[in-house]
């Protein structure tokens, strides 16, 4: 009985590993159940025995990949009262995460609109939370707050990091410095 349970667990993990591999190499939009089954060395029926649908596979894949990462920690940034220090610390943390997961994140963000809505919404909510944690300590007018919110929202996105660092060759530190300066200008700080 125990041997059978171990085999089931191993098959389950092989399916998850196959999904992670495929998402990182060809992206979620091109990943199929048949492809996952082939990569895992199982049948499509076996995949469906372990996961009810693509959303369940995607959730397991995401959880497994994230468990191997060190995600950004907004609670640590929130401890910093100075708004500029908070932005610098947060962007350094976020950009470090993006750099560490660039292969997977490039495919995830490229295929965002084809992902299960729960995962897509979770990513957008996470980015919104990052923005909100950074916006909180700024004491600015309502009009400036709207502009600052937009700039912070832009600063925390993967596409901003990708443009600055991957496309235009800045280091994470240089990108952090550039975006912090943009935030300071939007906030009207000197």
Question: Can you describe what's shown?
Answer:
With 190 residues, this protein is mainly α. The protein folds into two domains: 2-67, Arc Repressor Mutant, subunit A (Orthogonal Bundle), CATH 1.10.10; 74-187, no CATH class. Helix content is 75%, strand content 0%. The protein is built from eleven helices and no strands. The protein is elongated and about 65 Å long.
Radius of gyration: 20 Å
Distance between the termini: 69 Å
Specify the overall morphology. Answer: elongated
Q: What percentage of the residues does DSSP assign to strands (E)?
A: under 5%
Overall average pLDDT: 92
Number of helices: 11
Query: Structural class per helix/strand content?
Result: mainly alpha
| Helix coverage percent | over 70%
Total number of strands: 0
Task: Give start-end ranges of low-pLDDT stretches.
Answer: none
**Integer tally of domains:** 2
Order of helices and strands: HHHHHHHHHHH
User: Major sheet: size, sense and barrel closure?
Assistant: none
